[in-house]
Amino acid sequence: MKEKMMKITPNVSWKDITPGGVITKSGNAEEFKTGDWRSMKPVWHEDKCKHCMLCWVVCPDNSIIPEDGKIKGFDFDHCKGCGVCTKQCKFGALDFVVEE
Amino acid sequence: MAKRVSLSGNEAVAYAMRQINPDVVAAFPITPSTEVPQYFSQFVANGQVTSEFVAVESEHSAMSACIGASAAGGRVMTATSSCGLALMWEMLYIAASSRLPVVLAVVNRALSGPINIHNDHSDSMGARDSGWIQIYGENAQEAYDNFIQAIRIGEHPDVQLPVMVCYDGFITSHAVENLEMCEDAEVKAFVGERVAPYSLLGENPVAMGPLDLPPHYFEHKRQQAEAMRNAKKVILEVAAEFEKLTGRKYGLFEEYKMEDAEAAMVIINSTAGTAKKVVDKMRAEGKKVGLIKIRSFRPFPAEELVAALKNVKAVAVMDKVDGFTGVAAPLHNEVRSALYGAAEGKIVPGYIYGLGGRDVTVNDIESVYNDLFKAIETGKYEVYNYLGVRE
C-alpha cells in the first residue's frame, strides 16, 4: 500500500484516502471547521462585557478566545452556535442572532 | 521435507495455527469448530507457541478481541461455526472495513432454526457480502493448505483484508484423513512476519475506526472494493508460491475433467469429492461430464468461470444453502450473473441440496447429471430445484 495522504481534504479520491479512515496524526480536530454547522450565532457587545469569563467556562467548543484574563473574541471556525454562552450572560453582553 | 500424517480437518487447521505461531488467538467454542481453539489452547499450555490465547465470553467478543489485536499490528486468528459466525456479524464488517487481515476458520454448519449442528453453508454464505475474502476447501488437506495461504493473501499490501477459510463441519472437520504437512520451518518461512501498514502501537501510532460521514465514507468503501478485486491476483500468486513449496496446485477454482465436458457441475466444499467419484464413473461410461469446485467465492472469479464454462452445454449450480431470495441460492445467483451475456443458450439450473447435513449420495449427484443430459436433449428443464428433499 503506497503512502496515503496525511491531509484528508473534501476532494480526496478513493485512491489517496487512508484505508478504513485511519488517522495518521494527532491534534487535527482543529482542521475540521465545524463552524459551518451554525444556524444561530453569538454577537458580543464589548462595552457591556465585565470579562467575568463565565462564557469561556461554559463554551463546549473552546471557541471563546481569552487573552490576559479578558475576552478577546470568538473562533467562528469552530463555534457551532449552541447559544450556551449567550444564555448564561447576566450583563446583556451576548446576543443570539440568526446566522446570515 | 513434508510428512504424511493422519489428522481430522480441525486438527490439521490447529496444527497450521501452531506452525504459524500467531500473536493472538481469541475464540469461543461452538460445534463443530470447538476443537480448533481447544487443540490450540493445548499448544499454548505446552509452550509450543508464544501466542496470547484469549478465552472470551462470546463470538462477538472473540472477533472484537481479534480486531483490537490486529489493529495493534498483531497476526491474529480464530475459529467459529454457524450461530457463532452470526454473533460475529457486526464485527465482521468492522474487521473488513478497518482493513485488518484476521484469519477465521469457518467450520461450516447450518444456521438455526430449527437448531441443527450439521453441515451446510448457510453460515458463511450469509456472511458472503461482509467484505471478507472467502476460501473454501474440499478436505483436511485443503483446509490446512488454505489456512496457511490465507495469511499471505490477507496480509498482502494490495489486499489487507480478513480471510475466512471455510470447510465442512463434521465431514471435513472431524473425519480423519491422510494429508501432507509442511515442516514447521517451511511454514514459518512461507508466512514470514506480519508488516502492518498502520498500527495502534509502535513509533507511529494511528487512530482507527473514526466516524466517517457522507464526505468520505463512499471513498473508503470504493477503496475496500478495490482491495477485494486485487485479492484475485494475490490468491493466484500465493498459490503459485505454495505450489513451489509443496507441489500442491491451487487456483481460484479447480477444474475436474472439464476438457470437452458437455454437462458440468459447479460446487463448493466436501460434496465435490462425492461428485468427482460420479464424474469418474460417468466418464468411464463415455459420458462427457466435468466439475468445477469453487475455491475463492469472495472475490468471485466471474470472468475465469465464464471462460472455463465456455464449451459446456449445461451446467448445474449446487448450493448447500437456500438463499431465501424467492428465486435462486447464492452460488447459483453468482454463476448465472457471471454468465449473463456470455451464456450462448447454456442451460444453467440450480440445485439446493444437503441442508442441515442431509446426506448427499453418488446417486443424487448422478441424477443431476442425468437431468442435464435430458435438458440438453429436450430443451426442457426446471431452473430452480431441490435435491434430496421429500416431496
Describe this structure in words.
Chain A is of the alpha+beta class and 100 residues long. Chain A contains two helices and four strands, in the order βαββαβ. A two-stranded antiparallel ribbon of chain A has the order 1-4. In chain A, strands 2-3 form a two-stranded antiparallel ribbon. The longest helix of chain A has 5 residues, at 54-58. Chain B is of the alpha/beta class and 391 residues long. Chain B has two domains: 3-246, Rossmann fold (3-Layer(aba) Sandwich); 253-387, Rossmann fold (3-Layer(aba) Sandwich), CATH 3.40.50.920. In chain B, the strands form three sheets. Chain B has a seven-stranded mixed sheet with strand order 3-2-4-5-7-6-12, sandwiched between helices. A six-stranded mixed sheet of chain B has the order 9-11-10-13-14-15, sandwiched between helices. The mean pLDDT of chain B is 97. Classes of the chains: A alpha+beta (100), B alpha/beta (391). The A-B interface holds A 1, 8, 10, 12-15, 17-24, 26 and B 97-99, 157-158, 160, 197-198, 204, 206-210, 212, 215-216, 218-220, 222-224, 226-227.
